[in-house]
Design goal:
By secondary structure, the chain is an alpha/beta fold. It has two domains: about 250 residues, TIM Barrel (Alpha-Beta Barrel), CATH 3.20.20.370; about 60 residues, no CATH class. The chain is about 45% helix and about 10% strand.
Length: about 325
Amino acid sequence: MKWLSYRKLAKQAERLGINRLVRMIGSWRGLLVLTYHRVGNADACSFDRGVFSADEQLFRQQMEFVRDHFEVVTIVDVIEKPAHYWQHRQAVLITFDDGYVDNYEIAFPILKQLGIPALFFVATDFIDHQTIAWWDEIAWMMRQIPTDETADERDDKICEVVERYYGMIGSQADDYLEQLGRDLGCGRFKGKSPLWMNWDMLREMAANGMRFGGHTVTHPILTRIDESRLDHELSAGKRRLEAETGTAVEAFSYPVGNPDCLSVQLMEQTARQYQVAFSCYGGVNHASRGSRWNRLNLQRWPIYGPMRQFRITVTWPQLQN
């Protein structure tokens, strides 16, 4: 569904009270997995604002809404329960991708206070070396240049460049970042990124019931790398997380998570390391008695936008199935 059509539908459904009625009846059964990236004030960020899922107040409202209207479950439930277990439930799993520090500083205290478990997918090189992610570096470079554009216009241009980079492979992508830095006159980002959690933070979260999943070592798009590197990204990230957090790491999320970021071969490789794996392009995981989920492609909804959009996402997730 197109973005504008989706926003209009969300607004109309709220205005007419349709969502409230449907929530009383229930429009879906199964497992709905929600995906967050960053939580906080996007307007104050000099990096990529497009990865902010909600600000602090909105995130709290969303978590309270989920707690009050649905059955919140853990990754252990997802791994251990068969698909038909979910056929009469409206279950929600909360996940985060990448390992941003605001996951610890803002989201974690809210989750702990509300008694909501969550699963954090972490790219371990970000934690180990505090390296900057390519999307954040692109945004940082483009924000160094004075402009008469509005904030929205600049954000749109950053999105265009990020999308261009997304389509590149290997050294072509590295060369593109070098050239972009030269063209803009600011060069590449130097030093450590201030955006990531550290291992002490992850260990504290683990001690308070949060779980962690693999998200590779360096966050490449896995369908665009060779097999030897693929094995390293899948296995080394898992071992590092388990060693540092002292928890079993049995779930994985594919970086970016769009349909073109998955393949049959990739899912087969992933199955050697993980029990379940998640994409990120919308939908709800349905089940009926005797059916089986594709446990290497469990669907997730990326969360963005205002509260009314969130309410229709959790009320009508099947619109994207």
